[in-house]
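tmp note - Peroxisomal carnitine O-octanoyltransferase
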Amino acid sequence: MTNQVSEFPTERTFQYQHSLPPLPVPSLEGSLAKYLDAVRPFATEEEYQVTAAVVKRFGEGIGKDLHQKLLQRARTRRNWLEEWWLNAAYLEMRYPSQLNVNFGGPAPYLEHCWPPTEGVQLQRTSISMWHTLQYWDLLRTERLDPHKAGNVVLDMDQFRMLFCTCKIPGVTKDTIINYFKTESEGPCPSHVVVMCKGRFFSFDAVCDGHILTPPELLRQLTHVKQCCEGEPAGDGVAALTSEERTRWAKAREYLIGIDPANKTILEIIQSSLFVVSLDDAKPYATAENYTPVTREALTGDPTIRWGDKSYNSLSFADGTFGSNCDHAPYDAMVLVTHCYYVDQQLKATDGRWKGSETVRPMPLPEELVFTVDDRVRSDVAHAKQQYFETTQDLQVVCYAFTSFGKAAIKQRKLHPDTFIQLALQLAYYRQHGRLGSCYETAMTRRFYHGRTETMRPCTLEAQNWCHTMLLPAASAEAKRKALLLAFNKHNKLMAEAQNGKGFDRHLLGLYLIAKEEGLPMPDLFTDPLYSKSGGGGNFTLSTSLVGYTTVLGAVAPMVHHGYGFFYRIGDDRIVASCTAWKSSPETDAEALFQNLVSSLHEMLHLATTAQL
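out:
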C-alpha cells in the first residue's frame, strides 16, 4: 500500500476500473463444504451431525434454487454483492453507527517529528491539512498509481469516497452521498469544515486555483480558534450524528423543518472535503503506548466530529492527531494509504513547511450557525447522554510489542499475518478456556468494486494446535507439527477468500435472496451452530491486519462478549489495538493483550528451535 506518485504518470489512478473482472459466485458444493469445516471446532460430534444433515438438505433442496437465482443476478451485475453488502452491513443498521461502525485511530507522527508538544496544535494542523489537500489533488488529477498485488491490478473505486462523502440518515435506511469528481469529470467541492467547541466553520481550501499554503491555512484556523476562545460552547448539533439512526433521521427532518437555512448548512458539511476537529483533549500517547489517543479517536467529544463523514481529521491540543471515519463508504485501507502518505511526507520534511510565508488576501472562515429550539437542544442532550454512557463502557488498549516484528518472523519462513492470528487464537484459548469464533478481513479488490470477504482463522487445525500447546506432556516436535498444519490451513483459506472463493458472502447472498422473495428462512441460517460459529455477524473476535505501514486503527467489538482487534506489523514491532465492553463479565482487553505477548514469545521460540 505504498503510495507511488508520479509527476508524469504512465498509469492513471482509475484507468483500469472498467477492465477489472466481475466478482465470481463460488460453487454451492464448495461453499457448503467450507462452511461445515468452519463450524466443526464449535460443535460436539452430535451437534456436528445435526448440522451436517441440515447442510445436506439445504444443498439438495432450497439452496440449489437460491444459488441459481444468485447466478442469474450475477449475470446482470459486475458485482452481485456490492449493493447488498452496503445495505445489509451498513445502511439498514439502526444502532448508533459512530461507535459501533466507525473506525478511528492514532496518527503515527508522534513516533518521529511530532511528539506530544503543547502550543503547536494549529501550526501542525495547517501542515497536516496541506498534505491531505495534496493527496486530494493527486486523486483529482489521477496521479496516484493504481494499486497492484504483484502484477494484478486492484480496484481503486473506494478512493473516490475519501473526500466529499457523507452518510445521510434515513428513517428505515441510510444513503451515501458523494460529491467527489476527478478533474476530467468536472468541478469538485473544495471547502473544508472546521469544528471547535461545538461550533462549525467553513472556508475554501483553494484560492485562485491554488491550494492554500500552511501559513494561509494557519491564518484560517487561528481565526476559528480566536472566535471560540473564552466564548460559550456552541449548540453541539454534531452530537446528533452519534444517535440511533432512525432517531437521528427524525431529528434531522425536524432540524430542516424549523429553518430552511439548516438544510443549507447540512449540505455544506456533507459536501465538504473533510472535517477538521480542533479538540482541547491532551491524550499524551507514546510510541509504546498509543492507548490515550486511540481511545480519544474512538470515543472523543461528539460535538466536534461529524459521525457520518467519511473523514474526520482530529487535532488534539497536545499536538497529536487521530481520525474517525464512517466505515460504510470505504474500508480502512483507503485511510491507511492516505495517512501513510502524510506520514512519509512529514518524515521527509521533518514536519516543517519550507515554502513561502506569504498569506494572500482571502475571505475568513464563515461560521455555520444552526437555528435550534428547545426540542433540538433536548435531542442533542439525549444524544450526548447515550453516547457518553456507551463510550464509558468501552475498554480500549493500544500497545506496541517491541521484542520482534516482521523481520524475525519472515526469517523463520512464516507469514507474519498468520503468525499474529494464531497467536491471538492461543491468547484467547488460554484466557477463556475455549476457542473464539473469529473474523479476519480478506481483501477482494482484484475484482470490480470488490471490498472484503470473511476469512475464519478459528480452524480445526488452529484448535488442535492450541490444545497441544497447553498439554504439559506435549513434546516440542508435536507442537511444531501442529503449528505448521495450522499455518498451512490459514494461508490456504486466506488465498481462497482473496480469490473470490470464500463462503461467508456467498451464504449471505443466498440468505438475502430468500429474504427478498419472502421465502421461509432456510434451516441452515436458524441452526444454532450458524451463529455460534460467527455467522450473521456474531464473531467473538473481530480482527483485521491494518497493514505493514506505520498506521493503525481501532474498532468496537462485533458482539457484547467479544473483542475488536486491529494490528499493524512493522519490521521490529507489532502494534495492536484491542477493545472490549466493560459490562461484559467475560472479556478483558488488557488481559488479552498480555496473553498475546506470551503467545508471540512462545511461538517465536518454537519456530526458532525448529530451525536449529
